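User: Can you predict the 3D structure for this chain?
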Amino acid sequence: MARKAERLFFWIVACEGHTNAWVNAEDWELATAAFWGVPWREVAAKCECRQKRPVIKGVCPQCGSFFFGGAKRCDLCEKKARDDEWNLQQYLKNRYKHRRQEGGGKNADQ
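Assistant: Here is the predicted structure, written as structure tokens:
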């Protein structure tokens, strides 16, 4: 029996409240739910696919650098993506503090 070759792609998926996710899978909708670890109807239904790139083993699809590894992004791009997501989540968590400082609030006249 011949094995069916799986054709994997990097799907660049955008979702409100998150940075762009680089999902390595055959289908972006199901992979997005697995990426964020939630049921499909909660997150993936609100996401949109921005771009589709073929997977080339040992080449980072984001920056194009060569590395020894599987079909994934290089360590620098992974770290940058993790940091960007963390910074965005911290900003969204503390967003109300920024609004109070800009608007003035109750004690603005004092």
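The two ends are 80 Å apart (CA to CA). The mean pLDDT is 77.
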